[in-house]
Each structure stands twice: as C-alpha cells, then as structure tokens.
Amino acid sequence: MPRVACAIHGTMSRLLGVLLLVAGASCLYSSNSAVVDLRPNNFDNLVLNSDHIWIVEFYAPWCGHCQQLTPEYDKAATALKGVVKVGAVNADEHKSLGSKYGVRGFPTIKIFGLDKKPEDYNGPRSAAGIVDAALNAASQKVRKALGGKASGGESKSKDSKDVIELTDENFDKSVLNSEDMWLVEFYAPWCGHCKNLAPEWAAAASELKGKVKLGALDATVNTLKASKYEIKGYPTIKFFAPGKKDVDSVQDYDGGRTSGDIVNWALEKLAENIPAPEVVQITSEKKLRAACEDKPICVVSVLPHILDCQSDCRNGYLKTLSNLGEKYKKKMWGWVWAEAGAQPHIEDALEIGGFGYPALAAVNIKKMKYSLLKGSFSYDGINEFLRDLSYGRGGTAPLKGAQLPVIIETTPWDGKDAEPPQEEEIDLSDVNLDEKDEL
User: Fold this and answer.
1) Which residues contact 404 (CB under 8 A, 6 or more apart)?
2) Residue-level pLDDT at 156
3) In the sheet where 369-372 sits, what is the strand order?
4) Average pLDDT over residues 218-238
C-alpha cells in the first residue's frame, strides 16, 4: 500500500539528493507513517471501493495549521491501525480531489463511513478527538451489520437540536414572516432516504447556525403545507431567500445531500442574497461588539487622523474596505475602523503603532488572537493578506492583555474635512519695541 515518502536515506548523488529533497518538501508524513498517501489514481480503489472506514485529511504542505496537525494526525493513524484506515491527500498538488469533495481550506478532514458519503470532521485537532470520531463511525458500521440501529439514529433529538421543527401552524410565522434565509426539508418518517439525510441535515444545521436556518416538516402529518408546496416525493428540500417572502418566491434545492454539500450550497445562496457588510466606525464598545462579537473574524482598520488625510483621502480608504467586504461577504466577517489616536487601547492591543497609518489587523475575538497586515494598505495588499488567512497561512499572536481592549466613546465622523486649529493672534499694539527692559 502506498505511503507518503518524505525522507530519503542512503547514499546517492548530490544532484539526485537535491531533487528528492525538493520533492520531499511537498509532503508532511514520513515513509514509515501509518498515514496512507492518497492520490487521484488510487483514491477510489482504496477508499470508495473498500469495506473500511476511512479518515482522510486534505492538506497543503505550506499550510501552518496542517504542519501543526501532522504529529497528532500521525499519532491517531498509528493508534487506529487495523481498526480504521487513515489517509492524506495533498490537495494543493491534487486539486481535482480537493474540488470534488468541496475542500475550501486546509486542513479539512472528512470521514468516509457508512455508504462512503463523506462527512466533515469538526472536532478537536488532536489525536484523541480524531480517534473518537473514527471509533464512532466504526461503531455505527458494526451496529448496522448486526441489524440494529446506528448510534446516530438513537440520539436523533440530540443531534437534531439545531433543526427547527415546522408544522402547518407555525410555518408562516417561522419561515414566511421572517427575514432569515431558510432551507426546509419535507419528509416522511418511513422514508429511507429521509433517514439517511437526517444526520447530514442536522450537521449542516449546526454548522450554519446564525447564518441560515434549517427546518424539517413531517409532510405526512402537516398536509396543508405539503400540498401548498406541491410535495410529491421525499425528501424534498425547498429554499426560501432572505428578506420578504411569499409562496411564489420559493425555489427548489438542487444541491447534494451531504452536510458539506448542503452547507456550501446554502453559503453560495447567502452570498448572492446578502448585502456587503457595512464598514462600521468604532465609537463605542456596543458598536464594536455588534459588528464583531459573533463573527469568525473582524477586520479592524486604523485610518490616518482627519487632519492628515481629509475626506477624499479617508473615503478612498473606506471604499477599498467596502469593496473587499463585498468580495469576502460570504465569510460573514465584521469590518470596523477607527481614527488614529481615537482608540489607543485597540492600537496598543494590536501593536499597530510601529507600522504607521493606515493599518489593518484581522482579529478573532472569541480566541483573542490577531494577525497584522504588514504589506501595503491597498486593495491588492489587503486581498492577499486576507486570502492567505483563508487558507491557513500567516502567523497569529494573542491580543495584548488577552481581553477586549477598553473602548473610548467618541463622536462619529461627520464625513467632512477638518479645519486646522487656528493659532491665537497676539495683540502687540501696546508693546513699545524701543523700550529695553533693564535687569
């Protein structure tokens, strides 16, 4: 069985050694690792066509988070040897495999368990967490072989906690009268395909919580809504766009039925329907928390003082940030700014002072970590910085003080230029310049 070959031993020519070292830089696991090297030419045969449960990591060799995961993933593979197969795909080199399974960031770990439908692993990036998930998948396979229920089916109420139960009575109030985006599954309790979808639907609901609402309606009981939306087969999934809704605005869901497929489809639709985020001035702690607290990342900019960069200059920077907000709106990030000197505690926490203005940092408020832009404050410079963050590249540092900086309440900018302070005129009319003071 192929293995990731990352170390070459023995005596060889200098030229061959250099070539092998260059090739070795593209992989993360040693030649004696229990992690199987998966490629387009062996993936289907080893993973999809086998009876084994597989844990598969999609990585990029340059990804810092992937490099940090390597020893834990290696340890998990060793512990699971003979029980669950563990593999890795260099998705930077084999982009077709990454694209096929919806990989958008590194590392991404998927579990190929029952029916070989890949399920995203979102647990701890530790050997213990990976092993627990692998053993849970193996347990479900064994239970099914015994003719009993898989463990996932026994804890449906727990797993489905983020799926909203809909009925004829609450449908209009919950879905049609809300501003939220909804995906609604119409199902029948006896439907086998519905049972297979249930854990995927629940996982997607949890991952999309706070962004898109997922509901489920028993169409065999709630026949009014099933008839209204012409449900003729199970499961049927309907899409309700954000904003004002009516019966004519509903659309059919045409994506896949894994949690990853559902999440990706929903986020694409969300991006099409939501406006670009507002770039909010930090004038109070309330403003900052509203813009950033529940966001995965908050992009914080400190712009030059209005006396150093008047309205045309400042609006140019704000336009750049707005355009980038539009580009990355699917990420659901927060975007805020402050004037240089107005929020000194933020500048101190992000250690912005040494780089001058304008300055920018990407902050994770929940983890109290940030990454500072060290390139140019331009569309291309910031875009490259944010793109690298999206792929797990770039270093992070803890917020100074490990807590939200103190926010000073300030007056919002009125959009106008600032007048330079006027020097006080001194009246010299009473001064006799001919007189000399004697000591």
Assistant:
1) 285, 288, 365
2) 38
3) 279-281, 334-339, 298-303, 359-364, 369-372, 397-398
4) 92
Specify the length of the chain in residues: 439
Peptide bond before residue 118 is cis, with ω within 30 degrees of 0: no
Reply yes or no on whether the pLDDT at 16 is more than 50: no
pLDDT computed for residue 249 by the predictor: 75
**Catalytic residue positions?**
63, 66, 191, 194
For residue 159, give the 3-state DSSP assignment. helix
Distance separating alpha carbons of residues 197 and 212, to the nearest angstrom: 18
Q: Which of 20-29, 73-82, 324-333, 415-424 has the highest mean pLDDT?
A: 73-82
* Cα dihedral value 220, 208, 284, 304, nearest 10: -140
**Strand 369-372 with 397-398, pairing:** antiparallel
Pairing between strand 108-112 and 54-59? antiparallel
Question: Using CA atoms, how far apart are residues 176 and 49, in angstroms rounded to an integer?
Answer: 44
Kindly report, residue by residue over 393-436, the tens digit of the pLDDT. 878 888 877 678 899 999 999 999 998 877 666 666 666 656 55
Give the tens place of pLDDT for each residue, 132-181: 888 878 877 776 776 544 443 333 334 568 999 999 999 999 999 988 89
> Look-up: residue for tokens 């449900």?
231
- What integer pLDDT is reported at residue 245 of this predicted model? 82
> Residue 48's closest CA among 56, 60, 58?
56
290: number of Cβ within 10 Å: 13
Q: Tokens 């209005």: give the residue.
A: 306
What angle in degrees, to the nearest 10, is found between the helix axes of 379-390 and 311-327?
Answer: 30
Sign of CA dihedral 176, 178, 184, 186: negative
Residue in 114, 109, 98, 123 with CA at minimum distance from that of residue 53: 114
Residue among 340, 336, 348, 334 at smallest CA distance from 406: 348
DSSP 375: S
Between the alpha carbon of residue 344 and those of residues 127, 173, 378, 408, 428, the distances in Å are 42, 46, 23, 9, 40
Q: For residues 211 and 181, what is the distance between their CA atoms, to the nearest angstrom? A: 8
Contacts of 413 (CB under 8 A, 6+ apart): 281, 306, 314, 339
Residue 355: band (very low, low, confident or very high) from pLDDT cuts 50, 70, 90: low
